[in-house]
Amino acid sequence: MKTAKDVVNDCSAIVFDLDGTLLHTEPDIRRATNQALLDCGFQTLAPEQVIPNLYGPLPDILASVMLLVQAPAAAADDLQQAYLTHYARQAHDHSFLYPNVLALLEQLLSQGRQLAVCTNKIELSAKQALERHGMSAYFKVVTGGDSTRHPKPHALPLLTTIDALQVNASDCLLIGDTHVDALCASNCGIPFVFYRSGYGDESVQQYPVAASFTHYAEICG
Question: CA 24 to CA 6: how far, in whole Å?
């Protein structure tokens, strides 16, 4: 199998997932979720409780949380609005870049690669996160979970991203951390590179994986 560096070097356009791939955003997601639960009169998640479905669009994440705390479905809209308020107020202050992400982005851009983000995060939140952590200038296109009719793993958001980059799908790859990214890439017929230090697990291996890596330093240089 090729290394992640080999696969990246073979492509002129690189599309990244965001949460769990470029940024560790779970702390901000957890804080906003717990504040929203408090606002709506529900118990909060315990510190050791893993937030399920972090790879999904926001309504799916919150639906999974509601099941955990036994909140009624009727509370979904209020919970989401409270979440969005708290998440925006936090301004991504508790999230952080994975090591060597900026070094890789700088390298790829200097090589003339086209870079984009395709995430299930709400587009506005994704753009705010990129701005907060100094990454906005690197990406020509940012596609969110609400940017198209369907979120990942449907092919539409990734194909929309590729189209906006004005490149051929055969020249692209997707770097992500979960099976949702792997399936999305497969649905689009492009290579998938698995970032092992994110939020995913070995269920990724159910789908085609061109290469994997644990640290971004493996791709740099």
Answer: 25
